Automatic annotation (TrEMBL):
The lineage of its organism: Eukaryota, Viridiplantae, Streptophyta, Embryophyta, Tracheophyta. InterPro entries: Glutathione-S-Trfase_C-like, Glutathione-S-Trfase_C_sf, Glutathione_S-Trfase, Glutathione_S-Trfase_N, GST_C_Tau, Omega/Tau-like, Thioredoxin-like_sf. It catalyses: RX + glutathione = an S-substituted glutathione + a halide anion + H(+). This is Glutathione S-transferase. Residues 92-229 form the GST C-terminal domain. CDD domains: GST_C_Tau (cd03185), GST_N_Tau (cd03058). The keyword Transferase applies. GO terms for molecular function: glutathione transferase activity. The keyword Cytoplasm applies. It is found in: Cytoplasm, Cytosol. Coiled coil: none annotated. Its EC number is 2.5.1.18. PROSITE patterns: GST_CTER, GST_NTER.
Amino acid sequence: MAGGGDELKLLATWFSPFASRVKFVFHLKGLSYENIEEDLKNKSELLLKSNPVIKKVPVLLHNGKPLCESMVIVEYLDETFAAVGPSVVPADPYERAVARFWVSYIDNKLVAPWFQVFRGKTKEEKAEGLKQMFEATAVMEVAFRECSKGRPFFGGDAVGIVDVALGSQLGWLRASETLSGIKLFDPAKTPLLLAWAERFLALDAAKASMPESGRLLAYAKMRQAETDAANASK
């Protein structure tokens, strides 16, 4: 793999969709890296030292220098290794700004409500989160039509940062569908996103960076049981 002259280490957890974003770019560009698995219940000194503000994964260590936040790392890798493999960040300033808007929308309007649905303490809180997720999914269906212009991905003929941001969540979204029976991507309401998801998951970089579905589902069931037990005791 490329990047042999650089020491690239990733502090991550196998189940983190945010770490999957970074791993996807590593594999898409063919960059060699060392994955360091973290235990978030017993965080390492390296993690606490590398990300003292948020104390979360992923953290990239590039020749010993730490960098935090998944999409910040994605853009850093794309720029730093611009000559290696395909780029995921649009070269055009306007297209780049639009893509960053949709990345922010995904994290704030889709991912944040997902946490509300599966970690909420009341039925009302969970229902509101689910409502927001369906609204965001409908918006992303339109966004895909506009961004892709009839091509396979948000980035056009090849994946871009919007594909990376949303695609990394597909494993958890599908695990959630299995647990709750609620399908966000529907053939009647969101046919474009449904087809896009299949294309994204078929990519070699996605297969290499996404957690195994059976293992993730088992972990999701365990986390859901822990959350339910914690809420019931309050």
